Amino acid sequence: MTTPSRMSRRTVLRGLGTAMALPLLDCMTPVVSAAVRGGPYGAAAAKTRMAFLFVPNGVNLDHWTPQKTGYDFDLPYVLQPLVRVKNDLLVLSGLTHDKGRANGDGPGDHARSASVFLTGAQPRKTSGAEIRSGVSVDQVAAQKIGSQTRFASLEIGCEEGRNAGNCDSGYSCAYSSNISWTSPTSPNAKEINPRLVFERLFAGDRQSDVAENQGRRDLYKKSILDFVTDDARRLQSRLGQADRAKLDEYLSGVREIERRVEMAEEQSPRKLVAGVEKPSGVPEEYAEHIRLMSDMLVLAFRGNLTRVATFMFANAGSNRSYRPIGVPDGHHDLSHHGGNPEKLDKIRQINRFHVAQLAYLLEKMKATPEGEGTLLDNSMIVYGSGLSDGNRHNNENLPVILAGGGSGTIAPGRHVRYPTETPMTNLFLSMLDRVGAPAAFVGDSTGRLPYLS
After folding, report:
1. I want to staple 425 with a disulfide (CB 3.0 to 4.6 A). Which of 15, 333, 393, 445 is the partner?
2. In degrees rounded to 5, what are phi and psi of residue 242?
């Protein structure tokens, strides 16, 4: 009987400009540096992932906030889609983004809500080129641990944005369209086309490989898997039975996502939408778009392509309609509900729709074995909005969920209520510790956030 070979976590399947990362297999020995091993969270920090998911326009807090705190918390209407991952959640109440407030700058709350979401910094009010915010928490992590993976970070979204022009009361569109900032003056643009994200994840080491790969596959009508078949067969012969099954399941999953991307391209030819050319590969159905991008995120984390990601479900102030769930009104228009019960009900329907897409992502991560646990166990997923109530445009008591176990450093399954005005950036400092990228501060942070473990 042949003993399975040990292999590096960085092993990839290669073939004609393709580099396909692999999931964590039993035969892979994690490499942990002495610096990380001696850190406050030990070896866990070497593999923990972090992602930040943004939704616009606040929420209907009456149907979001659990009445009970602690482990025996309830799931209100908006959060009910998360019932199967309830024990993997921390619902965090009371967190605040003070720098999302006007603080003398007047209107523009939606733009501020996105720019402050991960920076905790007051954006400079301008619609010109002299934009300024802060370095976002994802990029603080990427600058410290990004060299350990193929991509320092991944930025994705479902609504096209702009980095110029006036999008909200004198604030540049750059503020409304981005939550990731590599520097105070440089927003990190997101990719909204699933095809381009897929190609980027599985391209070779050269930038030109992305277009070259797709062109070659289109010419010969082949799947990306066809280019790595020989390498995959050689690898299979070195694996034990459990790892062979795991690899087969992973490759089948990649092919299924590739098939769905192809279907989106067939069903959504390039056409004009509100005067803007729609990129091919973007599904017409919004829920499918979110789920395809969520699948890309899982692939990136599972293949250890990156440990840091951001995902904007929509831009700040988005006025998208939600006809498939019976809400034809624009989201932003509804957020100015003025206490109207009918509008408030429609908002909670939109909020629940978004949370259902979050549930899809978390359930997929929970169903992905990794080591002695799951991908979700080894991750920290923040979901929330930079506004509490879209009508009041307030920034205290933000709707925030932290999902995942942080590789054993977080005790989920609870609703934790913090004193109002607790900086949300304190959560970011605690997360950075857990991924091995400690920082002295992020934005307006005042210290680490307690009660996470």
Report:
1. 445
2. -65, -40
Please give the angle made by the CA atoms of 415, 50 and 88, to the nearest 5 degrees: 35
CA angle 351, 352, 358 (to 5 degrees): 95
- Tell me how far apart the alpha carbons of residues 173 and 165 are, in angstroms, rounded to a whole number: 6
Yes or no: say if 316 and 133 are a contact pair by the CB < 8 Å rule. no
- What distance lies between CA 99 and its chain's CA centroid? 22
Q: Which two tokens stand for residue 278?
A: 């729609």
Q: Structure tokens of 43?
A: 């070896």
CA-nearest of 193, 248, 257 to 224 is: 257
pLDDT given at position 273: 41
Region label for 58, one of left (φ > 0), alpha (ψ between -120 and 50) or beta (otherwise)? left
Name the E strands within 295-444: 308-312, 321-322, 327-330, 369-370, 373-374, 379-384, 400-403, 414-423
Q: At what angle do helices 286-302 and 241-267 cross, to 10 degrees?
A: 150
The pLDDT tens digits for 16-59 are 667 888 888 888 755 444 444 445 565 555 589 999 999 999 99
Helix, strand, coil shares of the chain, percent, nearest 5, are 40, 20, 45
**How many C-alpha atoms does 110 have within 13 Å on its Cβ side?**
25
**Structure tokens of 57?**
């326009």
Q: Are 116 and 100 in contact (CB under 8 A)?
A: yes
Alpha helices in 186-340 (DSSP H): 194-202, 209-220, 229-236, 241-267, 286-302, 331-335
Q: Give the pLDDT of residue 32.
A: 42
Question: Whole-angstrom Cα distance, residue 152 to residue 304?
Answer: 11
**Closest CA relative to residue 190, chosen from 169, 164, 163:** 163
Question: Are residues 381 and 361 in contact, defined by beta-carbon separation less than 8 angstroms?
Answer: yes
How many CB atoms are closer than 10 A to CB 162?
Answer: 15
Q: Is 0.85 topped by the overall pTM?
A: yes
Phi, psi of 203, deg, nearest 5: -75, 170
Tokens at 256, concatenated: 């299924």
Q: Which residues of the chain have pLDDT under 50?
A: 1-3, 31-38, 219-220, 270-278
**Residues, the chain, total?**
453
Ordered by start, the domain boundaries in the chain are 49-192+282-434, 202-270
C-alpha 319/C-alpha 341 separation (Å) is 19
Topology at the third CATH level for domain 49-192+282-434: Alkaline Phosphatase, subunit A (3.40.720)
